[in-house]
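cron nightly-structures :: item 1 of 1
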Amino acid sequence: MATAQPLFAFLFVGLLGILSAFASKDKRILVSDPGYIQNELHQIQVKLQEYEATKILVTGLSAKVSSQENEISQLKYKLSSVETEMSSLQQLLNASTKSVAVMQAELAGQDSQINSLQSQISADKSNIISLQAVVNANSSVISTQLAAQEATISNLENQIHNTQGVSTGAVYIRWGRRDCPADNSTHLVYTGYAGGSNSAHTGGAAEMVCLPSDPTWGPHKEIEHYNPAYMYGAEYEDALLFGMPNQDEDVPCAVCRSTMHSTSLMIPAREQCYSGWTEGYHGVLSSGSVGSPSPTQYVCVDEHPQALTGGGITNSEGRLLYQVRTVCGSLQCPPYEDDKVLSCVVCLK
């Protein structure tokens, strides 16, 4: 709008000039001359039309100037924002420059350390080469000494093994099975047949034995009889208790040795070992019948007993195995109960 005001002033001065010219005409021109007056009025109208056109043009120019001023103001604002952003970027650039300088200093320090390490590695390589030369020069002596030490160690290991075998091995019989429990520390000594005195005899031995399946005979094999004791095989007399398909199945046995233990113990009336003991196996307590005249022994028959091949249902008598039941009275009840079948467990320590 500041530009439009001078334009209006210019037009106003022009109009005054026209009127002055009209007033300064020859006084001889009379007002009564209509032609002249008409001509002058026409010129004034033309000038007024030009003024209006100029005014419209000036108004349009004023609007354009105002719009341009707004655009200039917006550009100034954008320029201010750009300058602010440029200032921030300059600060970031300065900070980055400082970080780069710090990193370059650190890299220089690391390069120095790397050079030092490389020098040390070179020195170590020289030492290794020297030591390798010494080792090569003495390799035969060292090999001889190592061989001697290995032989000494082997002898000591054998002595330790033999000593441990004597002092820590626990041997027990697993009645009713041809094998030993499956673990790394228990080994089968031999498998064979459960045997003992005939249950119908009044004499003979009380204990049962595990007869090997590969006997060797001594020099008195064929001498004449003189009141001998007799060795019979053993039979399961209770098919239900031992899970046998037939009565009178023959009883196997296995002699087992644990290299991790030195003591074995059969505990009647339990299926688990006490704390600190390791189970070898558990099963059912068995012995001869109460009506048998022969002395008898309690043995622990495995919970999953097997039968000897070929034993079948033939009743050959011999050492007969029955269940063992409790009788309250002299036996404390509780903790025991009357007329119950007893279990057993073989424990190692």
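cron nightly-structures :: done
The radius of gyration is 63 Å.
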